[in-house]
Structure formats: C-alpha cells, structure tokens
Amino acid sequence: MDVKDILARLIAFPSVVGTPNGAIAEWISDYCRKAGAGVTVHPGPEGDRYNLFATVGPRDGRGYILSGHMDVVPAGEREWSSDPFVLRAEGERLYGRGTTDMKGFLACALAALPTLAAMKLRRPIHLALSYDEEAGCRGVPHLIAELPKLCNAPLGAIVGEPSRMQAVRAHKGKAAVRLEVIGRSGHSSRPDLGLNAIHAMANLITEVAEYGKSLTSGSFHHDFVPPYSSLQVGVIAGGQAVNIIPDRCTCDVELRALPDISPLSLLTPVRARLAALREQGFEVGWQELSAYPGLALAESSELATLLRDLTGQEPLAAVSYGTEAGLYQQAGIDSIICGPGDIGRAHRPDEYIEIGELAACRTMIEKLGTHLAEG
C-alpha cells in the first residue's frame, strides 16, 4: 500500500475523540506486524480505547519514537464539500477529517515502515500512537507509563503534529477545568427565597475574565504569539426555564501557559474565587478536565540538530498550540514537533493535506532510518 492508500484507510475510521477506537487500532497493529514490526496494544482505563506501540530494529538499543494520535475532532459542520470520512482527491490536495491532524503523519510512518524494517538498523524506531489527544492528551500518559517495559530509554520523540515539516522546539502548556455553582431553586417571582446560580456564576466569570486580562502583563516569552499566558471561558451551561430560579450553573475555563509555568498553578486564583461563593450560601465544584505541560527544547540539543539535518530547515522556536510532546519531555525524553500539513487547516471543514507534504514527511522518516543504520 502506498501512503495515499493507507491514508484513505485511516480516514475511513471515524475515530472521533471520546469514542471507542478498537477498529483503527486493530487495523494499524495488523499492518505493522505484516510490515515486520513488533506490536503491543494497551487498553486505557476506559476499556474501549487503546494505545499502540510498535518497534522495528533491535529492541535492546536506544532509538527514537515517532509519536501520533489516532483520534480526530468531530466533523459535523455543514460546510464539508464531501463525506469527511471518505478521502477525496482534488489535484494535489487530499480532503478528509484528520488528513492534517494527524492521520497524514500516521500514514507516512506506516508507509515507511516496510522500508525501515528492511534496513539494518543499529538503533530502533518506535511508533507510539495514542487515543483521545483531542480531549487534552488523555491517552498518552498511560502509554508513557508503560515505556520502561516496552523499550530502553528513547533518545528522543518526534511528535508529528502539523508543522509544515519544519521542526518546532517549544509550545505552551494547557489546563481546562469545569467550575460548578449550586444554589437553590424556586419560583422566579420569589428571588428572595432562592439562590440564583447563574447570577453567581456571572459575577465569578467577570472576575475570572479580569484575572485573565492581568496575565497579559505578567511573564513574557517573545517566541510565542501571544507572548504571555492566556485564559478564556469557553462553555457556560445552566438553568431550566426563565421562570425557575436556576439552581446550577457550570462553566469551562481554559488556560494556556508559557512552558516554564504550570497551567494548573495559574488557575489557583480562579479556584479561590470559586470557593469564596460558599460564604454566600452556594455549593461549589471544581473538576479538572485536562492538563498537559508545555514543551521547551534547547536550540543546541542533539534532537534539534538531528531534525535540522533531516528536514533541511532550522527548527522553529515556538508555536502556541499544544501537543503530547510536553508530556514526553516531562517523562525525561527530549521531544520535538515535526509533521506534514498546516495547523491552520485542522479542526475545520474541508481539512486537507497535500501529496507533496506527505512525500516530504515519508522522506524525513526514511532519512531517520538511514541515520540509524549508519550511526
């Protein structure tokens, strides 16, 4: 199978984040075994979602991880020009949900696998595929925890998120939390007898938004756009009917932090403001939805130098979106981002990748194999 055929097969699996992914994991594991790789499939605690780890080359050596995720964001937008789960070719573009983010990278790695397996590798190349990355990197921590049983300490991880095949050394970290305010219901004609959870949440959101503005004058890192940590309220829910005092309201808050700052630590003032509502008679709840650290790889690192040689481009200092790379680095594995496609095409209708981008990515992966065969 060539890379386009593999991509078409991967796109056909509607592996939407938060849903079972056994079918795509099984297909990839079968393909890897037939290509000559050793494969291990690990179920997550959900019971219906799986991480996958495959290896070519000597298992007792220290090699590199090619990291990607099998899940995609939903594709319910009406603006799609065709079925998002059927690969459509139009000139140099291949359309479908996940083509750029990030089944294109997966297809390149799988297409290169038979060539890598046929090389006399002196060090291994691992393929680490996770689930539910789009929900805040929920699957990969379970895979990273298993790595000591699966391989010797890797020399580095290449996370194939879309970067136009220019390596990226840093990204921001992220935390998402759900705030809950519980009041007391009643008839809207007697507001004095109830506790309006939406009103309380509205005041809290105003305070949270003001706190978010204060971050713009905090720590700065000018490799990022924007060069500061940022906060937003993204979802609000509450109330039953206009004539019922709402007894419950929730809102989801997201914080994106510079890589040297813990995202959850920056949310401490938000948690304190939420807790203060207890003094007014409300009950409150705090739920961590997701969190992952930022990435910061030194410009002088061996991994950055390797990716410069493999791609022919100087690595980019930083991007503002997040990936699983920070979690690999947190586990002591040098990590960098490099993959086909453009992040600007991700998470939107008519997502696409270009055939030339896939070719460049496959070439990069096979050059890594040549490097490890010669090294």
Verbal overview:
- Helices cover 32% and strands 23% of the residues.
- By secondary structure, it is α+β, with helices and mostly antiparallel strands.
- It has two domains: 3-170 and 294-374, Zn peptidases (Aminopeptidase), CATH 3.40.630; 173-292, Alpha-Beta Plaits.
- A six-stranded mixed sheet has the order 1-2-6-3-7-16, sandwiched between helices.
- Strand 1 and strand 2 form a beta hairpin.
- The longest helix is centred in the first third of the chain and has 20 residues, at 99-118.
- The chain is elongated and about 80 Å long.
- The mean pLDDT is 96.
Keywords:
375 residues; alpha+beta; Aminopeptidase; Alpha-Beta Plaits; 2 domains; six-stranded mixed β-sheet; 32% helix; 23% strand; ArgE/DapE_CS; arginine biosynthesis; Acetylornithine deacetylase; Peptidase_M20_dimer; Peptidase_M20
Summary, kept brief:
The chain is of the alpha+beta class and 375 residues long. It is built from ten helices and 17 strands.
Could you give the distance between the termini? 29 Å
Q: What is the CATH T-level topology of the largest domain?
A: Aminopeptidase
Task: Return the structural class.
Answer: alpha+beta
How many domains is the backbone divided into?
2
Radius of gyration: 23 Å
Proportion in helices: 25-40%
Write the CATH homologous superfamily of the largest domain: Zn peptidases
Number of strands: 17
- How do the SSEs run, as a string of H and E? HHEEEEEHEHEEEEHEEEHHEEHHEEH
What integer is the average pLDDT?
Answer: 96
Strand content is 15-25%
- The outline comes out as elongated
Under the CATH scheme, the architecture of the largest domain is 3-Layer(aba) Sandwich
Largest sheet: 6 strands, mixed
The total of helices stands at 10
At the first level of CATH, the class of the largest domain is Alpha Beta
Uncertain ranges: none
Side by side, the strands of the main sheet go 1-2-6-3-7-16
